[in-house]
């Protein structure tokens, strides 16, 4: 076996308290202490739950097979049985210490709600009607009950006289195994019980071991005897007193309490406990292994202070003492290979790994240790370097010494580049010198490979200062090498010298500059480089940086602030809407040509503020646009006429607004200005009647190009007449086509069947007796009436209309079809 202490939470517990008992489940451990606490632990010893059960010692803990219910008893007579994940609970306090408790293995099931307790009596508690617990005495009169184990339908317990087994099916006691050495105090040298399986009980008491088998009695032998009996199949004595027992395959694990004579004082004292594995024989045993355990405080412990618990199916054994918990595990082939490796017997280790390759776990790959020391040399001699390089990662695993040994072998033959991609980068991490050697070899012969390694390897694997200096030395020979410059920037970043890295990235116009600025908050270093940054990758700029942060940083550089906000507005009209008011001033100051497009495209800038700024700076075109947008079209038109003196722009503005009063104002303003009249005559024909303008022209006024203007008016008029006639022809043709279509539709028959109803009386439109005559009126709108249900028309015309449709509106389709039979 191999051993290790259960640490973590257990260490903390046993520094202030002492362990009194423990039980093991496949999912967790339950530890009881002398101060009345019960701790639930995981298999690493971490505390997951704590229960304050009693102020005094916990004597025993019992778990059912599901691990969902726990029974606890203590020295002050308290017994608790409760669910770990449910509200189910039982409390009882007895007038004497309760030494043992055992819950039914299948306690989780409703019809197995049973447990036993032992003090002076062995009591069975069963939950009955209305969830009441009913106790019954199973045994009494032979001293205190010291131990109990429940397996399947059998309960085994030990008192001062011996061991008894009860069959719960027949409720009969089937055996009594007396103790051999009655001179030993049963409280100082308690009995150890262990069920190997459902029918095999192992008893250890004093220095005697008995293995009992429960068997069925033959029907011919029944008479008044129980239907089962017990046969002792193995019995032998041990050298020391037994503190615990556990099965391991067909062998036994025995925890022994040892006393020895001190060489100095020649007085008997407590020695280290022993854990033995023995092979039972009919009247003796064969010792397989024996280990003395150095548990904490063993000099002060008694036989009753030690306990042995085990986890079925996992070969895990827990040795419990007041100040220590030790876990014993069965050694396997991995441990054997470890031992061979420690002794540097590599060939034997390889052979053992190959023989047991299906069962070993830890050393699945360590069979290659011999491969590393012998086979690698074969490939080196054959100049096949990449094959052993690939194998290193798989074979060497996490053994740093072997890794470093093999790297130096590659260095000796100048093949560090072959192993570079396979070197471990974490768990394990080699010495920095190893990685520096590989980087130097790449730097001397392969800049691209060097850059790739720097990018892939974490910066903490090697001494960054040494590599930086090496790169700087190479750049003195080739200062324009972009690969080395880019790699140097990455090295500066690893070394937190972000300013130098930023300078290199900006020189190279490298896209990683944005990530560097954003990640390390380098805004103060780029205030005068923002335009340059936006020029070579403006899209990335907007992805990486918050708008508010950039605007704030550029507050003292309004011209740069304008460039940034302008690019932002071009990219997305709504993203920087909170700065649109600010942008009006920026456009007015630094970019007048883009102010009007900005005012047209922005839906978030305040018009009053924009109008105020434009009027202050006498921006006529922008003022005209803002006045028209605010609904003051007359003032806008007046400004065009007075400030710009541009009749074409005035006419274009009037066309856009399409307002008759605006045209009237334009005519009144232009009537005494011959050039303006010429412009109006050339453009007004399609919007306003030209006669209105011609009548207002004063006689004798000289108008430039009047003849040409009048000819154009007549041409425009003729064009309008032609358009109207063409449209009329199209409309007449369309109307005729639609009328024919409607006529064809209304000429179609209308289906009348039993599902149709009269819209007046709501009864079926067709009579149930088809032989009777009937009269039905069906309108083109598909409403149907019995003739007698339809009101008589008050009009002179005999044409009738659908009452339902006529109530809404009278239109085509409401004329009548008459159906008679």
TrEMBL record:
The chain positions of domain RING-type read: 758-806
Q: Which GO terms describe its biological process?
A: cellular response to starvation; endosomal vesicle fusion; macroautophagy; protein targeting to vacuole
Keywords, A to Z?
A: Autophagy, Cytoplasm, Cytoplasmic vesicle, Endosome, Golgi apparatus, Lysosome, Membrane, Metal-binding, Protein transport, Transport, Zinc, Zinc-finger
Q: Does the keyword Acyltransferase apply?
A: no
Compartment list = Cytoplasm, Cytosol; Early endosome membrane; Endosome membrane; Late endosome membrane
> Which Gene Ontology terms of cellular component type are present?
clathrin-coated vesicle; cytosol; early endosome membrane; Golgi apparatus; HOPS complex; late endosome membrane; lysosomal membrane
Coiled-coil ranges (or none): none
The residues bearing each CHCR repeat, given as ranges, are: 535-679
Under which name does UniProt file this protein? Vacuolar protein sorting-associated protein 41 homolog
* Annotated source species: Zosterops lateralis melanops
């Amino acid at each position: 076996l191999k051993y290790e202490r259960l640490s973590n939470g257990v260490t903390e517990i046993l520094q202030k308290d002492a362990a009194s008992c423990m039980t093991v489940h496949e999912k967790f451990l339950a530890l009881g202490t002398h101060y009345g606490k019960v701790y639930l632990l995981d298999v690493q010893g971490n505390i997951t739950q704590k229960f304050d059960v009693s102020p005094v010692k916990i004597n025993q803990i019992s778990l059912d097979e599901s691990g969902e219910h726990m029974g606890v008893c203590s020295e002050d007579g308290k017994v608790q049985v409760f669910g770990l994940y449910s509200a189910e609970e039982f409390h009882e306090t007895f007038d004497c210490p309760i030494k043992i408790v055992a819950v039914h293995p299948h306690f989780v099931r409703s019809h197995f709600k049973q447990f036993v307790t032992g003090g002076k009596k062995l009591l069975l508690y069963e939950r009955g009607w209305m969830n009441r617990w009913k106790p019954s005495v199973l045994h009494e009169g032979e001293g205190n009950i010291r131990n109990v184990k429940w397996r399947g339908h059998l309960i085994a317990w030990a008192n001062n006289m011996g061991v008894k087994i009860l069959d719960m099916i027949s409720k009969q006691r089937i055996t009594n195994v007396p103790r051999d050495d009655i001179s030993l105090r049963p409280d100082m040298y308690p009995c150890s019980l262990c069920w190997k399986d459902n029918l095999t009980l192992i008893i250890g008491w004093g220095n005697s071991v008995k293995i009992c088998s429960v068997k069925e009695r033959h029907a011919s032998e029944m008479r008044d005897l129980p239907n089962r009996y017990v046969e002792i199949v193995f019995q032998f004595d041990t050298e020391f007193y037994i503190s615990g027992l556990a099965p391991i395959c067909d062998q036994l694990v025995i925890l022994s309490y040892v006393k020895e004579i001190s060489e100095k004082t020649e007085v008997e004292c407590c020695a280290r406990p022993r854990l033995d594995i023995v092979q039972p024989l009919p009247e003796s045993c064969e010792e397989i292994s024996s280990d003395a355990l150095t548990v904490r405080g063993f000099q002060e412990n008694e036989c009753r202070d030690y306990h042995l618990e085990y986890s079925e199916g996992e070969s895990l054994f827990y040795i419990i003492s007041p100040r220590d918990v030790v876990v014993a595990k069965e050694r396997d082939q991995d441990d054997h290979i470890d031992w061979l490796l420690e002794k540097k017997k590599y060939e034997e280790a390889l052979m053992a790994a190959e023989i047991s390759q299906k069962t070993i776990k830890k050393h699945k790959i360590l069979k290659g240790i011999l491969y590393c020391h012998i086979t690698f040399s074969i490939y080196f001699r054959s100049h096949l370097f990449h094959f052993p390089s690939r194998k290193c990662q798989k074979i060497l695993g996490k053994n740093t010494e072997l890794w470093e040994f093999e790297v130096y072998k590659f260095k000796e033959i100048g093949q560090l580049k072959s192993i570079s991609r396979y070197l471990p980068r974490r768990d394990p991490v080699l010495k920095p010198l190893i990685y520096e050697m590989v980087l130097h070899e790449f730097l001397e012969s392969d800049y691209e490979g060097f850059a790739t390694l720097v990018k892939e390897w974490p910066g903490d694997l090697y001494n960054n200062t040494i590599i930086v200096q090496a790169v700087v030395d190479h750049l003195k020979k080739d200062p324009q090498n972009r690969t080395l410059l880019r790699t140097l920037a990455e090295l500066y970043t690893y070394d937190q010298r972000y300013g130098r890295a930023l300078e290199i990235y900006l020189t190279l116009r490298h896209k990683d500059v944005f990530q560097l600025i954003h990640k390390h908050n380098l805004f103060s270093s780029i205030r005068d480089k923002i335009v340059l940054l936006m020029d070579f990758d403006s899209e990335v700029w907007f992805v990486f940086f918050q708008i508010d942060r950039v605007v704030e940083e550029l507050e003292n550089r309004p011209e740069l602030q304008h460039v940034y906000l302008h690019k932002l507005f071009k990219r997305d009209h709504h993203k920087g809407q909170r700065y649109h008011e600010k942008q009006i001033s920026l456009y007015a100051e630094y970019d007048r040509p883009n102010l009007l497009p900005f005012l047209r495209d922005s839906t978030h800038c305040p018009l009053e503020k924009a109008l105020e700024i434009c009027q202050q700076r006498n921006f006529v075109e922008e003022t005209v646009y803002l006045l028209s947008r605010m609904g003051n079209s007359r003032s806008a038109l007046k400004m065009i006429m007075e400030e710009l003196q541009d009749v074409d722009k005035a006419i274009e503005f009037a066309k856009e607004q399409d307002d008759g009063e605006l045209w009237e104002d334009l005519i009144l303003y232009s009537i005494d200005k011959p050039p303006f009249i010429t412009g109006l005559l050339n453009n007004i024909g399609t919007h306003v009647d030209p006669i209105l303008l011609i009548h207002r022209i004063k006689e004798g006024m000289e108008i430039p190009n009047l003849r040409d203007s009048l000819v154009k008016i007549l041409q425009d008029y003729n064009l309008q007449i032609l358009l109207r006639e063409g449209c009329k022809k199209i409309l007449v043709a369309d109307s005729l086509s639609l009328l024919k279509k409607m006529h064809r539709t209304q000429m179609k028959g209308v289906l009348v069947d039993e599902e149709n109803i009269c819209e007046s009386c709501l009864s079926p439109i067709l009579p149930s007796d088809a032989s009777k005559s009937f009269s039905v009126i069906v309108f083109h709108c598909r409403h149907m009436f019995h003739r007698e249900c339809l009101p008589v028309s008050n009009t002179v015309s005999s044409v009738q209309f659908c009452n339902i449709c006529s109530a809404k509106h009278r239109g085509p389709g409401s004329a009548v079809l008459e159906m008679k039979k």
